[in-house]
């Protein structure tokens, strides 16, 4: 397994000792520094004292469950989160995504696949990371009072910093680099998430979260418009004088 260009500090949170041992072992062999917590309380304590670059978080935990741990982590900082879950229902996956999880892997899973997902998220989380085709070579993107700086992974609206998750930032940058163009959910999953296939509700949830942060009225979006039967389109000239 190749060593990552920039090793990261990763916190694995799982109460199953076998799963934890396998996951931490693979991540360490990939060159990362890995800590482990077996419950939600320990995870929050470790994250507070030694802020990780990424958290691999099991949904089912004793004491504080993974959803609540994710909620508290996201309230404190923008650390990327990949959720592990044995639950297969769409509601559980959506709940994690709504709380700001950047990715999820359903048990049973391939440890090698998890390492690839971790490294994909880490690459996109670092300043100067690629956020869609060619965007690493662009200057700041501007539209409707929104400024996105792909090189430094910062975004603002009307001069106020936007608190975006990793995937929300990538999605906004992708839209703004291609104004007026319709995008299917399958295309967004491929180009923003880097997945050739997957649960398309992931895209739907992230669009909804992004609208809540950039639209004047998320229930009647002007910037990220739904193209019925196709997907979504970013209207750079929308938003009116309020933008």
From TrEMBL:
> Where 4-aspartylphosphate occurs along the chain?
58
Entry's InterPro entries?
A: CheY-like_superfamily (IPR011006), OmpR/PhoB-type_DNA-bd (IPR001867), Sig_transdc_resp-reg_C-effctor (IPR016032), Sig_transdc_resp-reg_receiver (IPR001789), WalR-like (IPR039420), WH-like_DNA-bd_sf (IPR036388)
Q: Work out whether the entry's keyword set contains Phosphoprotein.
A: yes
Superkingdom as given in the UniProt entry: Bacteria
- Single GO MF descriptor: DNA binding
Q: In its keyword annotation, does this UniProt entry include Transcription regulation?
A: yes
**Keywords for this protein:** DNA-binding, Phosphoprotein, Transcription, Transcription regulation
SUPFAM superfamilies, alphabetized: C-terminal effector domain of the bipartite response regulators, CheY-like
DNA binding happens at which residues? Answer: 138-236
UniProt xrefs under PROSITE patterns: OMPR_PHOB, RESPONSE_REGULATORY
Q: Which residues form the Response regulatory domain?
A: 9-122
Q: Which residues form the OmpR/PhoB-type domain?
A: 138-236
- Pfam families hit by this protein: Response_reg (PF00072), Trans_reg_C (PF00486)
**UniProt cross-references to PANTHER family, sorted A to Z:** DNA-BINDING DUAL TRANSCRIPTIONAL REGULATOR OMPR (PTHR48111:SF4), REGULATOR OF RPOS (PTHR48111)
What is the designated name of this protein? Answer: DNA-binding response regulator
Which species does the entry assign this protein to? Streptomyces virginiae (Streptomyces cinnamonensis)
- Species classification: Bacteria, Bacillati, Actinomycetota, Actinomycetes, Kitasatosporales
